[in-house]
Design a protein that fits this description.
Helix content: 25-40%
Radius of gyration: 25 Å
Number of domains: 2
Shape: globular
Low-confidence stretches: 1-10, 17-50
CATH class of the largest domain: Alpha Beta
Strand content: 5-15%
CATH architecture of the largest domain: 3-Layer(aba) Sandwich
Structural class: alpha/beta
Number of helices: 14
Length: about 475
């Protein structure tokens, strides 16, 4: 260590001294004249290491944490929540051109000679005091509709899965932008120094549209803000455990020396990523103790497993991940995102969607109920939904009991529950054909702006300067959907 310091001093020239003093002090002075509040705020390594860049929310938050239940592949809103009797009445008839209005189609259906309307084979009923329509595919969700806020007028700009999922999770169809959880980690920091602010859980052994780590990546934000994926099995976080022969004490001593070297390196190069890497090393060390404790669900009572369903006993299942999400937010994790694949039903939808609902319905409802019983739902926001919707016409052959649905970005349904959103409320609507938004359209950026608002963040003020431009999650537009706020 001393040898390294001596080497550094030996290389320290008069030019270095002048650069680091006169020019460096001059830069500080100039910055203080221009905007003293910005001097140690945006993109400052020291600020991002000790919590969020904002220091505190812009205004009093309604939500302290978020659980996002991302249904990858795009669930069919027409078979779950958006009841359209006209489709059943006109089943098999061609979609009127006046309704489609020349909207672009995917390559999977653009070549079809006709677009036969496909009514749902599932029964819809109204539930709760709110009278929300839910199909018999979701009996457990139907029981908690008075806790839910449905948005039936969501729309997006992307028509294929990868750009649509990227758009929803990062605010851009192009890869490389920070994800929602990373923005929240960057802005607000963590409530538990022993756990990441942003944790990702992916259902084990599911197939479907590929899930790339960039969906929870940090993009151009400092790397300690990327989502940390927890897996089922012996090693929940990859490369977290010490290798054979390395003790915890030895690792601690190694990190202490490394921290000193990184500080010298940072002083020399002034690269904020050096300190971000050091922060990740420290978090990894603390997680060696905190992660095994949180992954050990043996202390959960029997009634919890009964509430979440039999799958909750199987590590890595969607149900087990819902239970784990509750344990994570209990311990101060600010943003938990679950990914569940398999909703991409271009054919054989009636049979395939039953499997998806059987895997997710009970545990989704149990998570919301469990949070409520523990007093956590009052300051936890839960979001359920996919990247776009499905068409009202059948992809391929339509039969009495079988059909498929193609991608449809023009309208889809999500629901929210918990902190700051109205209970037993439905916002927005689609036309009688379920093809276009009829009232109160909600863009993906509007949803993202609303999410940040509930966390006490003005989406236009949480920015990061990169390549000469100040970026934000909502890019250049987006409005808070005030009508859904409680």
């Amino acid at each position: 260590m001393s040898h390294h310091c001596h080497h550094q001093n030996k290389q320290y020239t008069r030019r270095d001294f002048l650069t680091r003093t006169s020019l460096g002090l001059g830069a500080l002075t100039l910055a203080s004249f221009l905007d003293p509040m910005q001097l140690f705020s945006q993109n400052s390594a020291s600020a991002t290491l000790n919590g969020g860049i904002l220091g505190k929310p812009h205004f009093a938050p309604k939500a302290k944490r978020v659980i996002y239940l991302f249904q990858s592949g795009a669930p069919s809103q027409l078979d779950l929540f958006d009841y359209k009797p006209l489709l059943n009445k006109m089943n098999g008839e061609d979609l009127p051109e006046s309704i489609r209005s020349g909207q672009r189609l995917t390559g999977m259906t653009a070549g079809q000679s006709s677009f036969p309307l496909a009514g749902t084979v599932f029964d819809f009923k109204q539930h709760g005091q709110s009278g929300a329509w839910v199909s018999d595919l979701m009996p457990h969700t139907a029981k908690i509709v008075d806790e839910l806020c449905f948005i039936k007028s969501m729309y997006t700009e992307a028509i294929n899965h990868d750009p649509a999922a990227t758009f929803l999770t990062t605010g851009s169809q192009l890869p490389g932008r920070p994800s929602m959880g990373s923005w929240i980690s960057y802005g607000l920091g963590s409530d538990n120094e022993n756990l990441p602010a942003f944790v990702v859980l992916v259902t084990k052994d599911k197939t479907g549209q590929p899930l790339y780590s960039r969906l929870w990546g940090n993009g151009f934000l400092p790397s300690q803000h990327q989502g940390v994926q927890f897996r089922s099995g012996k090693n929940p976080v990859l490369y977290l455990e010490n290798p054979p022969g390395v003790s915890s004490e030895g690792r601690r001593e190694q990190l202490d020396y490394l921290k000193q070297l990184e500080a010298i390196n940072h002083q020399d190069l002034n690269d904020p990523e050096i300190m971000a890497r050091s922060a990740q090393y420290e978090m990894a060390f603390r997680m060696q103790t905190s992660v095994p404790e949180i992954m050990d669900v043996s202390d959960e009572p029997e009634y919890i497993y009964e509430m979440y369903g039999d799958d909750s006993r199987r590590p890595g299942s969607y149900a087990a991940n819902c239970l784990l999400a509750r344990r994570l937010v209990e311990r101060g994790v600010k943003f938990v995102q679950l990914f569940h694949q398999g909703w991409d039903q271009h054919g054989n939808l009636p049979r395939a969607i039953k499997t998806q609902c059987r895997e997710t319905d009970q545990s989704t409802a149990a998570l919301i109920t469990d949070l409520k019983h523990r007093g956590l739902l009052d300051d936890t926001l839960v979001i359920w939904g996919g990247e776009f919707g499905r068409t009202n016409y059948s992809q391929g052959k339509l039969t009495v009991d079988n059909y498929g649905r193609d991608h449809h970005p023009k309208c889809f349904t999500i629901f929210m529950a918990g902190a700051g959103v109205r209970k037993g409320f439905t916002f927005g609507s689609t036309d009688d054909f379920g093809y276009n938004v009829a009232q109160n359209p909600v863009h993906v950026h509007d949803m993202q702006a609303t999410l940040l608002h509930l966390l006490g963040v003005d989406h236009e003020r949480l920015t990061f300067k990169y390549q000469g431009r100040r970026f934000r999650l909502t890019d250049v537009h987006g409005n808070v959907v005030k009508d859904i706020l409680s």
